[in-house]
Structure formats: C-alpha cells, structure tokens
Design brief:
With 115 residues, the protein is mostly beta strands. 0% of the residues lie in helices and 54% in strands. The protein is built from no helices and 11 strands. The chain has strands at residues 2-6, 9-11, 17-24, 33-38, 45-50, 56-58, 66-71, 76-81, 90-99, 102-105, 109-113. 30% of the residues are buried.
Amino acid sequence: VQVVESGGGSVQPGGSLRLSCVASGIYFRIYAINWYRRAPGKQRELVATIASGGTTNYDDSVKGRFTISRDNAKNTVRLQMNSLKPEDTAVYYCNTKLSSSQDYWGQGTQVTVSS
C-alpha cells in the first residue's frame, strides 16, 4: 500500500491551494480517506474525512473554506483549500485506515500561509 500526497506550497493569506492524495494497493473505493495536519508545536489534528459513499466531515476550523472530494477511478482524494489563513500552516498528511493494524500514511506535504 502506498499513499502519496502532493500540491503543497507557499501562499499568501486569502489564497488557495489544492492537495492531492493517491492511494495505491488497496480497493480504494470502499475506504474512507482522511486529511490530517500537524502545525509546528501542536498535535496532529483531523482536518477532513470523506467516506466511501462520499459523505464528508470537516473540522470546525476549516468548514466553509476547505472541500474534500474523491475520484475513485483515479484512486485520488483532493483537498481544495480556499481563504487560507496563517494558522493553516502545517504539514498535511493523507491517511486511510483499513483496520486496527492497517493504518497507512503518506509522507506529508508542507503548506505555508504567510505574507
């Protein structure tokens, strides 16, 4: 199983970025996919989740600004991030948990929001 994120970068406050996560080696369409982030000096937090059926959930801090979506044909989940704030600065990780012993993470992609 391989989970690979891409799309991070630096942007000014109010800007947008789109992160992508490709998960291979699993029957992608039946698993929920999560985006987490870890800001400097803080614990990792769950940002957004998309279930196999497409139901989405967001942390309150990103509701209305971030959108998670999935393309099962491409084994891809995207996180569209708009109206970015400095407090969104973090390393963003894609995750899928197949079972208690099968918990897969990508290497992370840095998002920096600064003027």
